Amino acid sequence: MDAATILATVLKKYQESSDFNGWPAHAIHSQDEKAALIDLIEAGLVDLINDEETDNPHIRQLPARPISDQVKRVSNKGLKFGCLFPTRKALVEVAGVSPDPAAPYTAALKLGAPQLQFRTFRLEVLERYRNDPTFRYSVDDTSGTIYRDSKDKESHEYAQFGFAFDENVNRYVAAFLRYLHDMSAEQQAYWAGFELQGDFKLHPDYYRSSILGKWPEGLSVFDAILEEKKIINIMSERMGKPRLFKSDYEAYRRPDHFGFLIRPTKKEFSDFCLRLDQLMSDDMNYKFFEGDIEVFEYGKMDSGQEIKRMKGTISLLMEWLAAKFKPKDEKDMVPINEGFRAVRKARQKPAHKIEDNVFDEAYYQQQRELMIAAYGAVRFLRQVFANHPACKEVEVPKRLFEGHIWTQ
Fold first, then answer.
1. What's the pLDDT tens digit per position in 70-82?
2. How far apart are CA 322 and CA 336, in angstroms?
3. How far is the C-alpha of 362 from the C-alpha of 26, rounded, in Å?
4. Which of the four pLDDT bands, split at 50, 70 and 90, describes residue 108?
5. How far apart are CA 316 and CA 161, in angstroms?
6. What is the pLDDT of residues 300-348, one digit of tens each?
7. pTM for this prediction
8. From the CB of residue 88, how many other CB atoms can be counted at a distance below 10 Å?
9. Can you give the residue ranges of every domain in the chain?
10. Would you say 238 and 98 are in contact if contact means Cβ atoms under 8 Å apart?
């Protein structure tokens, strides 16, 4: 085969394959064919990708290595487990492929883009799926999957996505071209309306799991709070007490409105603050405190009538801790009190007055700061409980124990 035949074969394989596959390079045998291939690589018309750089050389997952490296692989018997792909230059100048705005992400693959090249979008791109009952999506703050429900069939996977950040740690949706290509032209056009240009980096754990094929290192702060509460409940029972928290949510099984904001509005932030307080102060079980401290407070009305009412859960918690644990410094308990009260205060703000809804990206940062305070309070409470003799053997997952928590 001469250079023209090799190029035509590579183009045909790539363009006729539904998965944009490469042409197996082991078909190149003779020295003349290798020389022709080197000419094509050096001309920027063909890329060689082999098993040294990817576990699946049949698709262009990531950009090819530098031309000089590819040439060395041809010369050093690097064709046995590799594939040849047309470059954008070959697809445009030789095959005459042109961009298709109707399906921009499929068009990108047709023009030779790597399948694991990601595009970045505003978080609001997910709002449509959250609000449409024909869709549902699961998300763990590192990645997510959108499913489409059908009356006639079981729900099926519709799209996969992850998250990315800019230099200011602002959060965005990220999706690989491979998954964007699987969408209909209509959906691709919809996502394109939210696409952003700039310098973005994938969430470290999304990069680890999607690109490196490794297990995530950290845990979302939302899942971490739920897991900390679960451990606190175990410790409560080890102490011979009822569970401190009434609910039994856990990581990957969250309540609604408990996750990063999709749209930074006053309403979404208020709904989040309500949910967070329901999971913290409102979720505490009065029976946990009974028998150890007085759970009621007494007083008199102006008429002289005596009144009896239950103390607030935060006051009960701090009073119980003061009675049961003696830290070297009383200030050591301050983070617990401040964290719980910060959440309660954030919840109460919208409860006492009617305000118009407001769109403000500052809510993203406010939510993050509130979650850091909330998690700090719950984590420190678990650490305090761990000092009880009956709790010494309660196992704490490594990520919680070492504090590998993602707060963005």
1. 998 887 766 888 8
2. 12
3. 56
4. very high
5. 43
6. 777 778 888 899 999 999 999 999 998 877 787 899 999 999 999 999 8
7. 0.84
8. 16
9. 3-97, 114-212, 219-406
10. no
Chain-centroid distance of CA 352 in Å reads 34
d(CA 407, CA 225): 11
Residue 58 CB contacts under 8 Å (≥ 6 apart), including other chains: 19, 21, 22, 24, 83
Task: List pLDDT tens digits, range 281-312.
Answer: 999 999 999 999 999 988 877 777 888 889 99
How many angstroms separate the CA atoms of 209 and 102, rounded? 31
